[in-house]
Amino acid sequence: MQKGEETMEATILTMTLLTVGALTIFSLLIDFIWNLLQVSKSLLSPLFLPNEETSLANKYGTWALVTGSTDGIGKAYACELASKGLNIVLVSRSFEKLSKTQKEIESTYSVKTKIIQADFSLGKQAVDSVKEQLGNIPIGILVNNVGKQYEYPMYLAEVPEEELWDIIKINVGAVTLMCRAFIDEMKTRRKGAIVNISSGSELQPLPLMTVYAASKTYIKNFTQALRYEYRGDGITIQHLAPMFVATKMNHFSDKIYRKSLFVPDPVSYSKYAVSMLGKVDDSSGYWAHDIQTFFTTILPEWIRMYIGGYMNKLFREDYLKSISESS
Ligand SMILES: NC(=O)c1ccc[n+]([C@@H]2O[C@H](COP(=O)([O-])OP(=O)(O)OC[C@H]3O[C@@H](n4cnc5c(N)ncnc54)[C@H](OP(=O)(O)O)[C@@H]3O)[C@@H](O)[C@H]2O)c1
């Protein structure tokens, strides 16, 4: 090959790589700027257009149903909605925890509540039972928060089969059937909101949490496609993908169980997330997590997967060390 041809080939290759890189950064920036505009509009509109501000109850309806609402994000999200005057339907497994949360919400926020005991690992049976126990209470805001995670980061063959199956039934099954159960009545009323909570783990395949992360990718794709299907029907369909929030789910490592700038407590997380309802379609639900998401998605997927797998190895070591120390 002539020297001139070689130089020409090298130039074409460089130009191609530069163009692909520039296009990738451009498309990420478009997403980021779009989200930034939505967030800025939501923060500024109450100052400049106070007449356009309407309460969540007026906009969507007076009752909200939150799944997995006796602990962590679900409980904090339910309280935040109650603080805005919404009546709350609490759904989770333990009757004791439901009653305690019900009392807390009624005495603090003076709204109506209803408790429904249901175990989403039972699949359709649980969703049918929720509908039946609900009677004719119209749900204006449906928050599909319930989710199951591994006990700690594990290799696939270490996770008990029943646990894997429960993760699929709860994370994939419940969100799907709960949306199916309530979306038609929202469509008829031309009013309502659905909030589906996935996780930052949906951003890439995640070693040592393979099934959990894959189930969260399902939620993201499902929610975005559902929003498209029902566009124009007056329903807000929001996807939230939090990074780490300091809840019991992260008990396996102190690094993510303790509150910090990037690991908010569920109350701070939910305050911000609720303020984004009806304003931002896709969000992490927390300002510091939005920054993390932006910098995470700049990286190629294989690097993100490598880093995610590495972090999970560290969390796994933390957990195994704490177990061996306590025995
Ligand atoms: N914490 C994080 O760092 C984080 C990060 C990203 C995404 N997320 C997602 O955010 C959501 C909430 O997580 P969290 O950390 O707040 O969880 P959490 O603190 O463990 O709370 C889970 C809630 O769900 C209920 N629940 C558990 N299994 C249930 C079942 N089979 N049927 C009905 N209710 C059930 C629990 O009450 P009972 O035990 O009484 O049923 C509890 O109220 C999940 O979807 C999770 O994947 C969390």
From TrEMBL:
Record protein name field: Inactive hydroxysteroid dehydrogenase-like protein 1
Cellular component GO terms held in the UniProt record: mitochondrion
SUPFAM superfamilies hit by this protein: NAD(P)-binding Rossmann-fold domains
Main location: mitochondrion
Organism annotation: Hypothenemus hampei
GO molecular function: oxidoreductase activity
Keywords: Membrane, Mitochondrion, NADP, Oxidoreductase, Transmembrane, Transmembrane helix
UniProt similarity note: Belongs to the short-chain dehydrogenases/reductases (SDR) family. 17-beta-HSD 3 subfamily.
TM annotation in the entry: 12-37
Keyword Magnesium: no
Superkingdom field: Eukaryota
Localization per record: Mitochondrion
InterPro entries: 17-beta-HSD3-like, NAD(P)-bd_dom_sf, Sc_DH/Rdtase_CS, SDR_fam
